[in-house]
Amino acid sequence: MSSLISFSEEVITFCGWLKAEKANNKTKIKIATTFLICINLMHLSTQPNIIAYVCWGHPSGYVEAELSPDWLEVSDDVLENLYADLSRLSESLVEAVQTRKPGDE
Fold it and tell me: Who contacts 50 (Cβ-Cβ below 8 Å, separation ≥6)?
């Protein structure tokens, strides 16, 4: 698993990703597939917001699982919910790697 932490004055992004190859059934060409688990924080100096999700890389971008579909204001409750939800998000990433196809296919 590779990871990236990027930050600026107002945004921090934590992403981990896995790359796998799958054969296209029609062409038998191997296609690189990327799976991401991301936690993003923004508005750090005003009212911090957070979003966390597991998704497929380009071209799909399909979201397999998420803490919330919307950005949430950071609070003790939100952070506790994220901590409690990390195992579900991680399991979603593992399932995506195993099936090697977005859940919407």
Answer: 39, 40, 41, 67, 71, 72, 74, 78, 79, 82
For residue 93, being part of any structural domain is answered with: yes
In a domain, 105, yes or no: no
User: 29 CB contacts (<8 Å, ≥6 apart)?
Assistant: 23
Report if residue 28 sits inside a domain: yes
9-67 pLDDT, tens per residue? 677 877 776 666 665 566 554 555 677 888 888 888 889 999 999 888 766 788 889 99
Quick check: is 104 in a domain?
Answer: no
If one counts the domains in the chain, the total is 1
> 32: Cβ–Cβ under 8 A, 6 or more apart, which residues?
19, 20, 21
